Amino acid sequence: MVKIFRYLFIFILLLPINYIYADVCDSNDIERLKELANHVEINYSYDQSEPQYDGENYNKSYNLYNISIYNLVDDIYIVNDNEDVFRVSDAVNGIITDYAFAGNRNYYVYSTNCEGILLRTIRLDLKKFNVYSEYDECKGLEGKVYVCDKWYQGNLDYATFISEIEKYKKDNDSGVNDHSNNSYYIFIIGGVLLVIFFLVFVFIRRKRSVLE
Question: pTM to 2 decimals?
Fold first, then answer.
């Protein structure tokens, strides 16, 4: 009999935490919290401040985004990938501000009262900005050279950037020269044909005069 009570006592101690949650956060509460989590809005904008050279290139330090979090309430809070916690008390004029570099960024929405319950995951894909697109060398070349694309996602250094610009200009100048040469040849051939036509015309006129 003692063993039965002992096992019963151990069983009660080992009851799942969910039973405790059930008293505080039942299914209706969780649905309500999920609805609140779905109203959370996160916007981001590229930081247009001046780049900082990091000793190797600009791209690594020139990809900062401003993150704005809206509609957070007392019942929920947010944690980012760096484990920074944001609560409604952190808001200024209803906006919570965070910062992130280019890449994938996750924000996890949790319940304040039901600790451990993940209500929603918000994923951001922050594209890398190509700082070289703002260089003087790219003026007039937007949409023509890939290294001048603002959102080019490949790895790029200054040497490659200049090399691709020079290559494009060389190919473009070659095309212009070829066009000029073609126009020159067309002009010469046209002139020769005009002279031949004139000589034939004169020859025919003289021949008719002799026959008359």
Answer: 0.60
